[in-house]
Specification:
The chain has 403 residues and is α/β, with parallel strands linked by helices. 39% of the residues lie in helices and 16% in strands. The chain has a six-stranded parallel β-sheet, with helices on both faces. A six-stranded parallel β-sheet has the order 9-8-7-10-11-12, with helices on both faces. Helix 5 links the parallel strand 5 and strand 6. Helix 4 runs parallel beside helix 5 and helix 11 crosses helix 13.
Length: 403
């Protein structure tokens, strides 16, 4: 039996964790033995799981990042222990996802991968692999990653360093390590990210774009009357926002500004994924909900909403857009990264970043036509292009081709 080993920061949690889990399930159905190594957020899985390190390791790794900008260079013992398990498993394919997140040492990992003949697939969910520090750079319109990072304008952003800017050294080390493999295939999750990779130091590797997939058996329209007893929202136009971590880069401040302009008797903004502190700071006419691991509850909230708003300032290919479409909810998003790729004229509206007036105009346009005008097209597009079985089978086909 062929063996697949995936490595990611989380398992069956958040967008990347659910993607990793679904790829594992798809591999199992195809007759593979599936293993997932992860750093945090232990969750049930159909795959055999390997926990990398422990909470203490993550804290120490985080401290090294905060003080010395050495993110991805801690967790040495944890990574060496993982390599011992990899040698025991003897996987036929090693599939990397997010190898940032305070849990693994990428230098040790890549020096090991350089010595093995096992094909390596790397799904790129963001831009961290090609920069000296940040995971996204469009918010500050930084172009240094094309040639050499230095004096990082986002050194205090994730993975934040408070004392030292090591971006130039990090860039050189990443370039050395990430271009050292002869058996690596890159999988950007959007065409936008694919174009970015072609301009980076990883441009010479084979690239196959595979969009994210979602579970359309769960993310589907749910009868509004069924949900309203669980989420007793008033008879208003419901504008939904969802993020795993809310910040101004995800449009948090834009939602606050929007709430001050819109008629609160007519519109209700609902934000999911907030911290307790953020919820306490919300204006009274915004409903804040903490992060939920229940995809069923998330699907219900998408279904009850009239419009899904994604005013993100940097993103690669947000899964939330796909989930909203599958639930029959039209999407409004900023023209940033790969976010517009999920939409066409029949399923939503794309506007310029930070254009609050454009956001209001788009809301009015969708409201004037009604959600029902868009719903069928939204569901059809999600079912046609983003069905998880179709998208994740592309990975199995890629594995087989590499073998």
């Amino acid at each position: 039996m062929k063996k697949l080993l995936q490595i990611n920061s989380v398992i069956n949690s958040g967008s990347t964790g659910r993607i990793v889990e679904e790829i594992g399930k798809t591999a199992i159905r195809a007759g593979w033995d599936s293993y997932i190594a992860y750093g945090r957020n232990e969750r049930p899985s159909d795959s055999k799981t390997i926990k990398i390190g422990n909470a203490c390791d993550i804290r120490i790794h985080g401290l090294q990042t905060r003080l010395f900008d050495k993110h991805g260079l801690g967790s040495k013992e944890s990574t060496n222990n993982l390599l011992i398990q990899i040698e025991t498993i003897k996987p036929d394919i090693i599939h990397l996802h997010n190898i940032h997140g305070y849990y693994i040492n990428y230098e040790i990992l890549f020096r090991y991968l350089n010595k093995t003949s096992v094909p390596v697939v790397w799904t790129l969910h963001d831009c961290w692999s090609i920069t000296g520090h940040c995971s996204h750079f469009t918010f500050v319109d930084c172009q240094k990653w094309k040639n050499k990072c230095y004096s990082c304008p986002q050194v205090n952003e994730y993975p934040a360093s408070l004392l030292i800017d090591r971006s130039e050294k990090n860039f050189k080390l990443k370039k050395e390590l990430f271009t050292s493999l002869s058996n690596l295939t890159l999988v950007p999750v959007s065409s936008w990210l694919g174009d970015i990779i072609e301009k980076s130091f990883m441009k010479n590797y084979p690239v196959k774009i595979i969009n994210n997939g979602i579970n359309i058996e769960v993310f589907k329209p749910v009868n509004r009357q069924t949900i309203e007893s669980k989420f007793p929202l008033e008879e208003k136009i419901i504008l939904l926002g969802v993020a795993s971590i809310w910040s101004n880069k995800k449009g948090f401040s834009d939602f606050i500004e929007l709430s001050r302009i819109l008629d609160e008797d007519r519109y209700q903004i609902v934000l999911i994924g907030l911290t307790k502190k953020q919820i306490k700071q919300l204006p009274k006419h915004i409903i804040g909900i903490e992060r939920t691991e229940s995809i069923q509850e998330l699907a219900e909230l998408y279904s009850i909403s009239d419009i899904y708003l994604n005013p993100t300032y940097e993103d690669t290919f947000p899964t939330t857009n796909l989930e909203a479409l599958a639930c029959g909810t039209p999407v409004i998003t900023y023209n940033t990264g790969g976010s517009p790729e999920a939409l066409d004229d029949s399923t939503g509206i794309v506007i310029n970043k930070g254009d609050i007036n454009g956001l209001i105009k788009a809301i009015n346009e969708i409201e004037s036509k009604g959600k029902e005008f868009y719903s069928t097209a939204c569901v059809n597009r999600a079912n046609r292009l983003y069905r998880k079985n179709d998208r994740f089978n592309e990975y199995i086909e890629l594995y087989e081709k590499l073998l």
